[in-house]
Amino acid sequence: MNHLITCDECGNEFYIVIREKVIDPEENVVMSYLRCPVCHKEYCFTVIDDTIRRLQRIQRDINSMDNTPSKYLQIQYKENKKKIKEHMGYLKNKYCK
């Protein structure tokens, strides 16, 4: 499904094309963003590093369990979800300007 969005900077309407770029090679930080094709303003929406990748992998493992996860794993899942949100917020504040 194609969605049009309007650039805050120039008012151009354009279709969403998700782009990614490495913004800190030493820390392996990748930013996902949209870019206006006219004025090239970037709209950052996620920033991910190895910490977030590790936590997301744990989350996927918990979700893929055949049986209902134990109470401990359910608590771990909620804590990891909170950690991901907090760390991603930190990264967005640091890298998305």
Describe this structure in words.
- The protein is α+β, with helices and mostly antiparallel strands and 97 residues long.
- It has one domain.
- Helices cover 40% and strands 27% of the residues.
- The protein has helices at residues 50-63, 71-95, and strands at 4-6, 13-15, 19-24, 29-35, 42-48.
- It has a three-stranded antiparallel sheet.
- Strand 1 (4-6) and strand 2 (13-15) form a beta hairpin.
- Helix 1 runs antiparallel to helix 2 (71-95).
- The chain is elongated and about 50 Å long.
- The protein starts with a strand and ends with a helix.
- 3% of the residues are buried.
- The model has no long low-confidence stretch (mean pLDDT 93).
